Amino acid sequence: MTALAEQTGIWLDLYAKQAPGPEWVRAMREAGFARFAELGFPTTHDEEWRFTNVSRIARTAFRAGATEVTLRAPKGVEQLGRELEIGEMRAHPDGLRNGFEALNMAFTDRVTFLRVPRGAVIEQPIEIGYNVDEADAAVHPRTVIAVEENAQCSIVETYTGAGRYLTNAVTEIAAGAGAVVDHYKVQREGAEAFHIAALRAQLGRSANFSTTSISLGGALVRNDVIAVLSEGTEATLNGLYLANGTQHVDNHTEIDHAKPHGTSHEMYKGILDGKSSAVFNGRILVRKDAQKTDSKQTNKNLVLSDEAVIDTKPELQIFADDVRCTHGATIGQLDAESLFYLQSRGIGKHDARNLLTYAFAQDIIDRIKIQALRESLERGLFEKFHESPR
Amino acid sequence: MSLLEIKNLHATVAGREILKGLDLTVNAGEVHAIMGPNGSGKSTLAQVLAGRELYAVTEGSVSYDGKDLLEMSPEDRAREGIFLAFQYPVEIPGVSNQYFLKAALNQMRKHRGLPELDAMDFLDLIRGKIEMMKMESSLLNRAVNTGFSGGEKKRNEIFQMAVLEPRLAVLDETDSGLDIDALKLVAHGVNSLRSPERSMIVVTHYQRLLDYIVPDFVHVLAEGRIVRSGGKELALELERSGYAGMGIVDEEETVGKV
Questions:
Q1: Of B3, B69, B108, B146, which sits with the fewest C-beta atoms within 10 Å of its C-beta?
Q2: What topology is assigned to B4-257 in CATH?
Q3: A298 interfacial to chain B (CB closer than 8 Å)
């Protein structure tokens, strides 16, 4: 039996044992599994997965698991779930880019499907929590949010859990023309967890979209963010990843400027300690039509130990001629002069290191518009950096 | 017993010897000016006193308040009352000036067995000092030195000194880059901190600062050694004759003539 067939075998078993669902669910599952059988798990021979080896996931005999979903949808947000409605949103199987996305579709179960109607302004954040506490469980949460024309909302997705398990999440956001959407994903998975997540954002004309990815937990983490912009769309992609021990965190982003006058800002910051490793790959695609695109990408990494490794790569593909695109990546250690300055004011070396590390992360936290989330992350970071022994 | 006693100090950076047998004694309450051309070792002396690891002390001794200063970490030196006003204050994005200074002050207080101050007590304590330095109080909420003008940075150094109340302040070219108004303001701050218990070492290239901060002693540093010492009139003599008039090579002036 080939390796691919072997992998498929384990998942085929789980796939076949799923509780039967309505016809549309069965159709999605079938299409998803067929695609998975075709693609298998990515390997390090795939350019997109060169630095992220998922063989640990492929080798694990997962059990079917369930994720606890906590949903807080403020008044004005509609929760949907019927075939007709989901039909408009669901991705075509050909668009599934890798085995994980295919598996997510093959295990379609409960979909968190929300709609923010045209013109609605939702002040309170929509909060969606996914939690796993079954050992060896594989869960495939799927979130679909349609924010209609000129509507406004903020969304906080939180992933948590304990023990060894796989979260294989797909989130789709469609923002209509003129919609304003601030999306946050807080990944606080357990230390042994595998976390694979894709966010696809389809952004309408003059929509204003931001997403912030905060990656704190997990043993092996891969985040894909794909944002497709229309004319005059403004997109902001921010990220903060903290890795310690043997954690591996991979952030792949793709900003697709399909139409003219789009603006994108991207700022990802990482802090690596211990023997951790991280990947940042930022693709910016400016299509032929996308004149007057203004795009700025920055990736900054703070490496606190000699053994941590970061691979950072900008990937600019520009087919229009009247655009402004800048990118920059830095990898550095704590600044010796700053450390000395703090010490010279009586602040001990350990505290000074923590303070500077915290300050590095603060930059991303400060951009979070939801005060409660900002404060909870601030507290979390503060505790992490003030208690971690070094 | 003198507060600071430097004997035959030799220090190197990247294998190059900068200080070549420097001697200096500072008693409580005294203000010493150290003058010298660029490259004479003025800033190295300031950094060595504050404990910068970049500089290696290869010979000699420094005793501070009867203790071996060279054995102490930079933070312990600060807690024992040494303060360095940086020639180039460091920008620290993401750390607010207020948080930074409160953390520093509380470290000092802890070291002295005093209770730590909360935010309100801290604000009460610094209010008058902000006024003395004519600082915009908004500077407190901004990140340390980040986006400050040159004058604001130097004022911020002296403001920190006013809050931390050191026993030995080392001012490293605090006058550099200041216009005359900013210079007067900084000098006023420094003068108001003069006391019989507080000693200062004022490092400068130019005599101008010493019109406003009048020292008790002036030392001329050249090639890593103090070559002349005297009262405040030595600074005036230097002003008239220049370093060259004393037979001292000033790298800056030499470059100017080429």
A1: B146
A2: Rossmann fold (3.40.50)
A3: no
Query: Which residues, including other chains, have CB under 8 Å from residue A247's CB and lie 6 or more apart?
Result: A218, A219, A220, A221, A274, A276, A277
Dist. CA A374–CA A389, nearest whole Å: 25
> β-strands A180-188, A208-215: how paired?
parallel
Confidence at residue B16, expressed as pLDDT on a 0 to 100 scale? 94
Is a pLDDT exceeding 60 seen at residue B253?
no
Report the alpha-carbon distance of residue A115 to residue A73 in Å, rounded.
Answer: 10
Nearest to B50 by CA among A338, A337, A344: A344
- Answer whether A241 touches B (CB < 8 Å): no
Domain locations in chain A? 3-334, 335-390
pLDDT digits (tens, 9 = 90+) for A166-181: 999 999 999 999 999 9
What are the residue boundaries of the structural domains of chain B, listed by start? 4-257
Of B50, B90, B103, the CB nearest to A337: B90
Is A355 in CB contact (< 8 Å) with chain B?
Answer: yes
The answer to whether the beta carbons of residues A208 and A180 sit under 8 Å apart is yes
* B94 contacts A338? CB cut-off 8 A: no
Does ipTM surpass 0.90 in this model? yes
B102 CB neighbours in chain A (<8 A) are: none
Q: Which chain A residues are within 8 Å of B89, Cβ to Cβ?
A: 341
Contact B103, A341 (CB under 8 A): no
- What's the predicted TM-score (pTM) here? 0.87
Could you give the strand order of the β-sheet that contains A152-161, starting from the edge strand earlier in sequence? A68-72, A126-132, A152-161, A180-188, A208-215, A234-243, A263-272, A294-303, A324-332
Q: What is the pLDDT of residues A21-46, one digit of tens each?
A: 888 888 889 999 999 999 999 999 99
- Position A7 scores a pLDDT of 65
A342 and B CB contact within 8 Å: yes
What values do phi and psi take at B112, rounded to 5? -90, 5
B104/A345 Cβ within 8 A:
yes
8 A C-beta contact, residue A11 and residue A103 = yes
Residue from A269, A298, A341, A354 whose CB has the most chain B CBs within 10 Å, to mutate: A341
In what helix (H) or strand (E) does residue A35 lie, and over which residues does it extend? helix A23-39
The Cα A181–Cα A155 span in angstroms is: 8
Q: How far apart are alpha carbons A374 and A215 in whole angstroms? A: 14
Which of B79, B95, B143 has the CB atom closest to A346's CB atom? B79
Cα A8 from Cα A2, distance rounded (Å): 10
